[in-house]
Amino acid sequence: KVGDHCSILTLPVRMHSLQVDSVQRWMEDLRHMTEVECMCVLQAKPIGVEEDTQGELIVATGDHVARNNLQTLLRRALVVSTELGKMFQRLEKGRWQRVHSTAVRANCHVRSLVHEYSTARNTPAEMQKYEKSLLEKCMELTTITERCLHTEDEFFLKSMREAIHEILTDVSDSFSHMIDMALANEIQILIRQIESSDSVYTIGSAISNLLSLTQDGPQLCRIIAKEGAVVALFKICRQDCFSDLYAHALRTVASICCVEEGINQLEKVDGILCLADILTDGNSAEAARAEAAAVVAQITSPHHTSTQHLGSFLESMQDIVTALIKLCESASCGEVFLLASAALANITFFDSMACEILLQLHAIHILLQSCKDRQRVDTPYSKDQVVTILANLSVLEQSSSEVLQEKGILLQLLGEKPSSSSPSEGAACERVQQKAAVTLARLSRDPDVAQTAIQLQAVPRLIELCRSPAERNNSDSVLVACLAALRRLAAGCPDSIEAADHQQLIKPRLVDSFLLCSNMEESFV
Predict the structure, then answer these.
(1) How far is Cα 275 from Cα 280, in angstroms, rounded to an integer?
(2) How far apart are CA 370 and CA 302, in angstroms?
(3) Cβ(107)–Cβ(141) under 8 Å?
(4) Where is pLDDT greater, at 142 or 287?
């Protein structure tokens, strides 16, 4: 199989991101920063807040209540975590004045957060215990750091440093756990909205909030999965009355399934069968089928260490693979093609039966013809998926005849170059070149394919990629693949390689040719 595969996790950013003016962001953050002296005196009690507006930093009105709660909670948590991180650094340097002032600020922020959240929500009993313990530890931290300001006794300060470090570690762990519990509480509210509401608007808003949360990292995705979000989302996808929400729900499922906990939940509710139903249903909207393909790509990613869920996937593979190649053929835009082809690329990695199914469905013809259609294949990322599938299909002998019918398109992929200075696009072009060379090397075991490749000027392009580091973006993996392809072609048609090239690129050991080419200057060409 081809290594270094670009899974759905590294596809172009299609995730939701918050983009606001920098001044606006600063003003929003300022609302969550507390004036330390006032807070120390008033112990985090709100100043001049009317009864009906208490906890305004947590509570919002209208459709954005949950989102405001969650975003505020995350921002305040980030502020506290930053202060605790600074405190660890200053403690190591023995900057006691700053250690104490940071402890005071952290104490105030924690008290403010706890007070406001408790005002906005009926805090669960277990969480109240954590809050009380955390506040006591924060106060202890403030008191003990203050004692260090009034002495220069090195022995005393050393013993205090160890004690403070222990308390600080305890505070950090307790705070993280408390935030996780608060987030879980908020997530439960969103899931209850999805499960209990009949309103498409209300459910859609809750799903949007969950999707937004998934962008904040794997830890939040684990909490979301643990609270049962995947189960609730698949219930939506099994009800015809919510068909307009399928795409939105499945996009959220794909994001949650970046962690094993999400995939395990999907397996428990027979999510793969639901995905197969949506993909094979001719009445399903293209957007829903595209997002179902995204989920398939996510759960079949080679980056996942667990493959237990793939057992049930194999049962539906024929239907899923057939639906995905049809989606590639009929895709109305580049994103739909990208998602469907990424799912197919991942599937071809873990089961050879998928490759045989694709050959029966004339996938090589469909995919190579797609490369001519700028509406469907408009980026190196899509071509990366196509050439990954081709490389994995090329291990089957039957693939040679299909590639012969599509003369030249595979060789065009060897010439893939980035259209911008984007590092991710450059890396995608490298993968396209590498996998195109690997595919060519595998297919050239067939003399007819080798002869056709030589007639289409594959050898000069391979030599150019070997000798010119700039052509391959200084990629060693592209160099190795091109050397291997050249040697395969030379074995079948020795006369196709000139004597000088043969002497340097074919005759030596592969490692010697690699070292020679990898050290070449551009002026050599």
Answers:
(1) 9
(2) 25
(3) yes
(4) 287
CB 472 within 8 A of CB 433: yes
DSSP 203-250: HHHHHHHHHHHHTT-HHHHHHHHHTTHHHHHHHHHT-GGGGGGHHHHH
DSSP, collapsed to helix, strand or coil, labels residue 285 as coil
- Report the distance separating Cα 275 and Cα 283, nearest Å: 14
pLDDT at 271 over 60: yes
Whether the CB-CB separation of 465 and 483 falls below 8 Å is answered with: no
pLDDT at residue 446 greater than cutoff 90? no
CA 514 to chain centroid, in Å, comes to: 33
Higher-confidence residue: 523 or 114? 114
Q: Are 417 and 465 in contact (CB under 8 A)?
A: no
- Name which of 34, 201, 196, 185 is nearest 120 in CA terms: 185
Instruction: Indicate the length of the chain as a whole number.
Output: 525
Distance CA 351, CA 310 (A): 10
Torsion (CA) 147, 150, 151, 157 in degrees, nearest 10:
30
Both structure tokens of 412: 């065009």
- Whether 276 contacts 323, CB under 8 Å: yes
CA dist 114 and 111 (Å) reads 5
So what's the pLDDT on residue 405? 74
Do the beta carbons of residue 91 and residue 165 sit within 8 Å?
yes
Question: Hunting for tokens 């879980």 — which residue is that?
Answer: 184
Closest CA to 509 of 489, 477, 480, 474: 480
Q: Under a CB-based contact definition with an 8 Å cutoff, are residues 144 and 164 in contact?
A: yes
pLDDT the model gives residue 21? 62
The CA distance from 258 to 253, in Å, is: 9
How far is 292 from 286, CA to CA, in rounded Å? 10
Residue 406 CB neighbour total at 10 angstroms: 16
Of 309, 315, 317, 257, nearest in space to 9 by CA: 257
Cβ-based neighbours of 377, under 8 Å, separated by 6 or more: 334, 337, 370, 371, 383, 386
pLDDT value of residue 58:
34
Q: Are 383 and 432 in contact (CB under 8 A)?
A: yes
Terminal Cα-to-Cα distance of the chain (whole angstroms) = 32
- Give the range among 221-235, 329-343, 407-421 with minimum mean pLDDT: 407-421
Two structure tokens written together for 266: 């999907």
**Alpha-carbon distance values, 510 to 443, 486, 504, 518 (Å):** 20, 11, 10, 12
| Cα–Cα distance, 289 to 282 (Å, whole number) | 10
Q: What is the mean pLDDT of residues 7-31?
A: 51
Residue (of 355, 455, 365, 454) closest to 402 by Cα position: 365
Q: Please give the pLDDT value at position 43.
A: 40
Residue type, 379: T
Say whether pLDDT at 520 is over 70: no
Packed helices 363-370 and 380-393: angle between N→C axes, nearest 10 degrees: 160
